[in-house]
Amino acid sequence: MPSDVATPLEGFWSAWGTADFEQMSFGFWQAVPGAVFQRTALDAWLLHQAERAGAIVYRGCQVIAGYWNGRTWSVKFRSGDLCETMDACFVVEAAGALGRSPVQPSTARYFFDNLICLSATTSCLTRIASFAAIEACSSGWWYMADIGTKDLTISFFTDADLWPAKMRNALFCDALQQTIYIRQLMGASSIACKVKPVGCRTSIRNLIWRDCWLAIGDAARTIDPLSGGGVARAIMDGVNAADAISIALTRSDFGPLRAFAVQRANSFFDNLEVQREYYSRESRWQVSEFWRRRTEPFSGPDESRIRMAQTKVSA
Question: What are residue 125's phi and psi, to 5 degrees?
Fold first, then answer.
């Protein structure tokens, strides 16, 4: 990938499960080289690659509805003040973790936590070699990456209900001052504590595939950002979904599509267990509500909800 899309990381610093800050020469949990993506540049590059491969890309459009007549889709989309309709033999929904699908409005999502990302931009006055860092604290965990640009973004992951919306700016700055290593890595940087909240709850749609419609990437399920695998999951979903759709359309064999949906659902629930394992490695704040929610065994309503979701999604 071009250097303005993906910047290689020279190191990864981690304070997780230990009071010491350890430098690694590879990504956080994966023993492979890491990189930081410039998301806007990545999206533009991927669209360009799609066009080079022969796809027709409609920019600045929003799909607002879709109707399945038993044979084909009629998809309605808005471009500026104009509304147009096109027919399609198959619809792949890859629009992220939308609360409501424009073409499958009856579907819903099961949520398994209340995670939110609070981020702020700093003016970086000193330069450090390209790195990323993560530091756990009593009410969540911090992430930052310095890729040599003018500004860098510091992100704090916590539960939304633990941080009242009106107090987030002040609480963010206070919590930042309590970090040990993130502040050190910032160097002589100034931070404007105007916090931007972004929801990142772990969730799965109760329907991933039906007839000639398929949800992939975050539109199908979202995993805790701690995994660091969102981009990779989305790309693998796209590649594997394309193979399954091709077989469905050319051979009228929907078996691979069904297998794709069931595998994605099963892997999601496997990921919940992996997520609990990694959060359990941080044991310094066992009485903290944030960590307690992620380390105690599933029981009661949580266990019932997971079993219900497994049954409905897999079906």
Answer: -90, -20
Dmax (CA) for the chain in angstroms is 62
Query: Are both 172 and 298 inside the same structural domain?
Result: no
Q: What pLDDT does residue 307 have?
A: 59
Token look-up 């939304």 returns 160
- C-alpha 227/C-alpha 214 separation (Å) is 24
Residue 260 falls within a domain, yes or no? yes
From the list 225, 204, 228, 231, the residue with the least C-alpha distance to 313 is: 204
What letter would DSSP give residue 31? Answer: S
Alpha-carbon gap, residue 172 to 178, rounded angstroms:
10
DSSP state of 223: -
Tell me if residue 134 falls in helix, strand or coil. strand
Question: Within this chain, do residues 178 and 139 fall inside the same structural domain, yes or no?
Answer: yes
* DSSP H stretches of helix in 108-254: 168-177, 181-186, 230-251
pLDDT at residue 24, as a whole number: 52
Collapsing DSSP states into helix, strand and coil, what is residue 225?
helix
Backbone dihedral angles phi then psi of residue 56, each to the nearest 5 degrees: -100, 120
Mean pLDDT in consecutive groups of 10 residues from the start of the chain, 315 residues:
80 75 51 72 92 92 92 93 93 86 90 92 63 87 77 88 85 84 70 80 93 94 89 91 96 95 93 90 89 78 58 59
pLDDT score of 298? 61
112: which residues sit within 8 A by CB, 6+ positions away? 201, 202, 203, 272, 305, 306
pLDDT at 55: 93
Instruction: Indicate if 254 and 181 belong to the same structural domain.
Output: no
Exposed, middle or buried, 138 (CB in 10 Å: 0-12/13-18/19+)?
middle
What pLDDT, on the 0 to 100 scale, is given for residue 293?
Answer: 93
Position 252 scores a pLDDT of 94
Q: What range does the domain containing 163 cover?
A: 6-40+114-199
User: Cα separation of 3 and 100, whole Å?
Assistant: 35
